[in-house]
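Worked problem 6 (solution included).
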Amino acid sequence: MMHTTVGWHVEMEFREDDQHTQAVAMVRLPDGTEVRAHGHASRHRTDVNQPRVGEEIAGARALNELAMQLLTKAHEEIDQASGRTSHPIHV
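Solution. The predicted structure is:
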C-alpha cells in the first residue's frame, strides 16, 4: 500500500497600530482552493503595549475561523459526494 504525504502551508499576515492587531490567515489546498480568514485583537489603553500578544490573539482567532471554514467545506463536499445531508462536523 502506498502512502501519500500532503503538506499545507498556512500564511499569516498582521497589521498593527498602538491599539489594534488584525491578522489574515490563508491556506492553499491541493485542489487549488484558497481559504482566508481574519482575526482581530484590541489592547485596552491601560494595558502594556505587547505587540506579540496582540499577534497571538488575532492570529489564533484567524486560525480558528480558518478551521471552521475548512470544516464547513469538508461537510459540503461530503454532502455533495453522498447526495444526502450528513451530520454536522464538530470541533
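Discussion: The beta strands are 10-16, 20-28, 34-42.
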